[in-house]
Amino acid sequence: MIITESGKVVIVLAGRHAGKKAVVVKSYDENATSEKHRFGHCLIAGIDRPARKVTKSMSKKKIEKRSKMKPFIKYVNVRHVFPTRYTVDMEMKKVVNESDLASADGKIETKKAIKKMFEDRYLNQTNVTSEKKAAGSNYFFKKLRF
Fold this sequence. Notes:
Layout: E1 8-12, E2 21-28, E3 41-49, H1 60-66, E4 70-77, E5 81-87, H2 92-95, H3 104-123, H4 131-141
Antiparallel strand pairs: 1-2, 1-5, 2-3, 3-4
C-alpha cells in the first residue's frame, strides 16, 4: 500500500524546502528502476512562498496582489516527506508533464501553470466538491504551526 498517493498533502522534512507543505503529484514504489532515483520517491508540488494575510477591508485589487504565491516542484525521497491525513482535489497530473521537467524552460512553464492553479484554488476555496476536500485545501494553504 502506498501512503503517498496522488493528491495527498505532505510536509517536506529535509532539504531546501523543509517545513513546507506540498501535494503529491505522482508516486513511485520502492522498486523504481529509474537511473536517477533508485529508491522510493515521489514528485511533489508545493508552496515555496505562501500568500500574505488578507482582511475584509482590503480592496479586490489589493487582495489579488497579496494572494500571489511561489510554487516549487521536486522529486523527493519518500522518507523525506511526512504524509498528513488531508487530500486535495487539484488535478496536478494534467498540469505537470514529467518530460517537461527535464529542461529548464519546461520546468519554468510547469511552475507557472502550478502557480495559476494554486492561486485560483486559494481565491476560490468555497467552490470545492466535498467537505473532506475542502478541509484538505484549507489546511494546505494555512501556515504550518509548530
